[in-house]
C-alpha cells in the first residue's frame, strides 16, 4: 500500500478505479477491487481514520458475509465476540437471543480493513474538491495535489453533499431528523456481577421516544448505544450529556439490577440521521454506494447490510463487466442501481426504518396493538424456546418462509 501525503510533490495517478471516501464502504470496495487485480486509488482526508461514532456492532449476517469475503480474520483482536443477548422490557425478561456478534469501534473496523489493502491499492491522503466525469475517463481534483484520473469513479463519501452538488446529484430527504443515536463507554463498579455478555433494554414510555439501549463488549471495555426518535432540543439529550449516570438510571430503572452500579467515564457521542436517497445520479463514469446513495436508520440495524450488498453486487457482479468494455456509460451503471438484490435491500432498509419508528412512537390504536403483539410474540417464542427448542426453531423457519413469500 502506497501512501501519498498532501505535503509530498504533486503526483498524477491513472487508475482503473478511483474510490472517494475511506470509511467502511470505500475501504471495503477498494480492498475487494484491489484483490481482483484492478489498480485502485483510494482518496480520503485522513491517513488514519479518526474515532467516529457509527456502526459498532456486527451481527451474525454481517459476520458470515465478511467471512465469505475472507475479511473476517482482519478483525481478530480488534473487537470482542459474543453470542448471547439478554433482552428486557418494562423491567421484565423479554427473551434471550443467541447468535454470533462482534462489538468493534467503527474506527478500529476501518483500520483493520485498511491494513488488508493489497499493493494494487494506492491511498491518497487529501480532500477531493471537484469531479469531472465522462464515459471513458474520470478526473478528481484534490486540494494541494494534481488531479487523480481513473476509468471509473466510486463515490463512497457518506452523507457529504459537496461532491454530489458538483455533479448536480440531488439528495432527497425522505424523513429529516429521523432518529438520533448516542454512544458511550460504561464502567462497571462490580464487573463480576454482570454475568451476561450483552443486554438490550427497550423503552417503556412513548413520551421519551426511546427505541432501545444496548450494552455490549468491545475491545477493552463495555459500550452503550441508545437509539431514540426525538430531536436533541425536546428530548433527554441534554440531561444525558450533562448527567449521564443519573439519566440512564432514571430511563432504565432495571439496569442497575442487571449490571450493578456503573458510571459513564467519558463523553456522550451522538449521531442524527436524516433518511435520504440520492436522485439524478445516473451519469457516465460514476457510481454511488453506501450512505452516499441512501442512508439507513441505525436503530434498524440495516446500514451495514445495505453497505455490504452494495459492495458485493458492485465489485463481484457489475464492475468486472464494465471494466471489460472501453467505456462506462450511464446505461451500464443502471444495471447496478436496478439490481434486484440491491433494490430489495434498499427497500427493506427504508421499511425497517419506518417500522422501528412506528413501533416506538406510534400513538394510534393500530400502532399500540401492533406494539403489544410484537412484544407478546417475542415473549411467547421465548417460552416455547425454553420448553422445546426444536419446535421454536421450526416456528422460526415457517415465519421466515412466510416473509420471503410475501410481496
- General shape: globular
CATH class of the largest domain: Alpha Beta
The biggest sheet amounts to: 9 strands, mixed
Structural class: alpha/beta
| Series of secondary-structure elements, N-terminal to C-terminal | EEHEEHEEHEEEEHEEEEHHHEEEHHHHH
CATH architecture of the largest domain: 3-Layer(bba) Sandwich
CATH topology of the largest domain: FAD/NAD(P)-binding domain
Poorly predicted ranges: 1-12, 402-407
Number of strands: 17
Task: Characterise the protein shown here.
The chain has 407 residues and is α/β, with parallel strands linked by helices. The chain folds into three domains: 223 residues, FAD/NAD(P)-binding domain (3-Layer(bba) Sandwich); 123 residues, D-Amino Acid Oxidase, Chain A, domain 2 (2-Layer Sandwich); 40 residues. It is 36% helix and 30% strand. Strands 4, 5, 6, 11, 12, 13, 14, 15 and 16 form a nine-stranded mixed β-sheet that branches. Strands 1, 2, 3, 7, 8, 9, 10 and 17 form an eight-stranded mixed β-sheet that branches. A hairpin with a 2-residue loop joins strand 9 and strand 10. Helix 8 packs antiparallel against helix 10. The N terminus and C terminus are likely disordered.
Question: TL;DR?
Answer:
This protein has 407 residues and is of the alpha/beta class. The protein has helices spanning 24-35, 60-68, 106-114, 162-166, 237-242, 244-251, 255-259, 303-323, 330-337, 340-361, 365-387, 389-405; strands spanning 2-4, 13-20, 40-44, 57-58, 80-89, 92-103, 121-125, 128-132, 138-142, 145-155, 170-188, 198-202, 210-218, 221-228, 262-263, 269-279, 286-288. Strands 4, 5, 6, 11, 12, 13, 14, 15 and 16 form a 9-stranded mixed beta sheet that branches. Strands 1, 2, 3, 7, 8, 9, 10 and 17 form an 8-stranded mixed beta sheet that branches.
Amino acid at each position: 500500500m502506497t501512501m501519498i501525503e498532501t505535503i509530498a510533490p504533486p503526483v498524477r495517478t491513472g487508475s482503473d478505479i478511483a474510490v472517494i471516501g475511506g470509511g467502511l464502504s470505500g475501504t471495503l470496495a477498494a480492498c475487494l477491487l484491489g484483490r481482483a487485480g484492478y489498480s485502485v486509488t483510494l482518496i480520503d482526508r485522513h491517513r488514519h481514520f479518526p474515532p467516529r461514532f457509527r456502526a459498532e456492532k456486527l451481527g451474525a449476517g454481517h459476520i458470515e458475509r465478511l467471512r465469505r469475503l475472507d475479511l473476517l480474520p482482519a478483525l481478530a483482536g480488534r473487537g470482542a465476540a459474543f453470542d448471547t443477548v439478554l433482552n428486557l422490557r418494562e423491567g421484565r425478561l423479554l427473551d434471550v437471543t443467541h447468535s454470533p456478534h462482534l462489538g468493534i469501534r467503527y474506527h478500529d473496523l476501518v483500520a483493520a480493513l485498511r491494513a488488508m489493502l493489497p499493493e494494487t491499492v494506492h491511498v491518497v491522503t487529501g480532500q477531493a474538491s471537484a469531479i469531472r466525469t465522462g464515459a471513458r475517463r474520470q478526473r478528481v481534483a484534490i486540494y494541494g495535489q494534481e488531479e487523480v484520473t481513473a476509468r471509473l469513479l466510486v463515490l463512497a463519501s457518506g452523507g457529504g453533499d459537496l461532491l454530489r452538488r458538483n455533479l448536480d446529484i440531488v439528495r432527497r430527504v425522505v424523513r429529516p431528523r429521523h432518529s438520533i443515536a448516542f454512544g458511550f463507554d460504561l464502567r462497571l463498579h462490580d464487573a463480576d456481577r454482570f454475568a451476561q455478555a450483552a443486554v438490550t433494554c427497550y423503552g417503556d414510555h412513548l413520551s421519551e421516544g426511546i427505541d432501545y439501549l444496548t450494552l455490549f463488549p468491545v475491545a477493552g471495555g463495555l459500550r452503550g448505544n441508545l437509539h431514540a426518535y426525538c430531536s436533541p432540543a425536546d428530548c433527554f439529550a441534554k440531561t444525558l450529556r450533562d448527567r449521564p449516570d443519573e439519566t440512564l438510571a432514571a430511563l432504565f430503572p432495571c439496569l442497575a439490577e442487571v449490571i450493578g452500579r456503573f458510571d459513564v467515564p467519558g463523553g456522550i457521542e451522538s449521531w442524527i440521521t436524516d433518511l435520504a436517497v440520492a436522485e439524478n445520479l445516473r451519469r457516465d463514469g460514476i457510481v454511488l454506494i453506501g450512505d452516499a446513495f441512501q442512508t439507513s436508520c441505525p436503530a434498524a440495524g440495516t446500514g451495514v447490510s445495505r453497505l455490504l450488498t452494495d459492495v458485493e453486487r458492485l465489485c463481484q457482479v457489475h464492475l468486472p463487466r464494465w471494466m471489460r468494455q472501453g467505456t462506462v456509460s450511464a446505461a451500464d451503471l443502471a444495471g447496478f442501481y436496478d439490481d434486484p438484490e440491491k433494490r430489495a435491500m434498499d427497500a427493506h432498509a427504508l421499511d425497517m426504518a419506518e417500522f422501528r419508528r412506528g413501533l416506538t412512537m406510534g400513538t394510534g390504536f393500530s400502532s399500540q396493538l401492533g406494539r403489544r403483539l410484537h412484544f407478546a410474540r417475542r415473549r411467547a417464542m421465548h417460552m416455547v424456546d425454553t420448553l422445546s427448542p426444536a419446535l421454536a426453531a421450526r416456528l422460526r423457519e415457517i415465519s421466515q418462509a412466510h416473509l420471503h413469500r410475501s410481496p
